Amino acid sequence: MLGANLAMCCRMIVVMEQVRMIMKSYAFVRSVAPRFLSYKPHSETPPPNEPKFSQYLYFFFAPTLVYRDEYPRTERVRWMVVIRNLVEFALTIFYLTFIWESLVSPIYRVFGTQYLDRMWLVKNIIKTSISGILYLATSNYLLLHTWMNAWAEMLQFADRLFYKDWWNSTTYHMYFRTWNVIVYDWLYTYIYKDMYEIVVPYRMLSATTVFFTSAIVHEYIFAFAFGFFYPVLFILFITGFFIFFVRKTINNNLLIWLTLSLGTSILFSLQTIEFYARLFASSQLLRRPVYTAKLELLKND
User: Fold this and answer.
1) 173 belongs to the catalytic site
2) What is the pTM of this model?
3) Using one digit for the tens of pLDDT, what is the confidence trace for 91-101?
4) Could you say which of 42, 145, 173, 218 is catalytic?
């Protein structure tokens, strides 16, 4: 995929879709396989019900990552709701592009073209904290509200609890539970519970496994989207992992917003700096043969 020379957004869409398919496939196998593994032939126990292909197909497109044979359904499709959500989806993409092009990219585009000191980095991390938190909140609205509600309405999927009031969180323990309910349910059902019930009945180990799984997958998405491995997000996840367990110390909504804003700004800044530094370095390498050829011509003259 890196050799296909796709745009960053296209690479991120492809990788996120790949991760979604892997999570859905794992959920399906993990939910269905125990029925057949526990079944003993030539016994009085009736054979398990095999899921139909239509059930798997519906689950594949439904806005959920936890497999069930049946889901609550609405009576009809409200196409005006679908259109409204898709229009909001398109407008939100435009707004995210506006934030990037007007507030983030102009600041860091100069990196690699002139001398910049440490105070420049600190100043711009603070400056991009507002745009970072705007990007975070808008991305949540883009994926978990407009996109998920559009698909839920088209598929008559009645369970619309894709996120909770994460903006009211006073601890990171509450934030991680409410930010993305879809992914949280998958992690709790297939990672946390399996670690606790099958491997070791130790909550700390189960929570650690969930954090590291989430951190690795997020870093995998970012690495392929940007085209290079730069584990800023992974380090921020590990930092959040330690903050997660001091829920009694950090118990303030304003502090949650400040740390989210600062963390998003650090991620924005370092990833963008690395992106433009590599872009500038590659452009210099491409120009070098031209300059070398010109110097050779001047020497010959």
Assistant:
1) no
2) 0.83
3) 999 998 888 88
4) 218
From 109, 121, 159, 164, select the one nearest 140 (Cα to Cα): 164
Q: Give 29-59 pLDDT, tens digit per residue.
A: 988 888 777 767 766 777 777 888 888 999 9
Cite the DSSP H helix spans in 180-252: 181-187, 193-194, 203-226, 232-244
User: Among all chains, which residue has been given the structure tokens 């679908």?
Assistant: 82
3-state secondary structure of 158: coil
What residues pair up with 114 in beta bridges, in sequence order? 111
Q: Are 142 and 96 in contact (CB under 8 A)?
A: yes
Q: Are 110 and 243 in contact (CB under 8 A)?
A: no
The rounded distance, in Å, linking the Cα atoms of 244 and 18 is: 28
Name the residue ranges covered by the structural domains of the chain: 76-289
Contact assessment for residue 273 and residue 108, using Cβ atoms and an 8 Å cutoff: yes
Token digits of residue 168: 């009211």
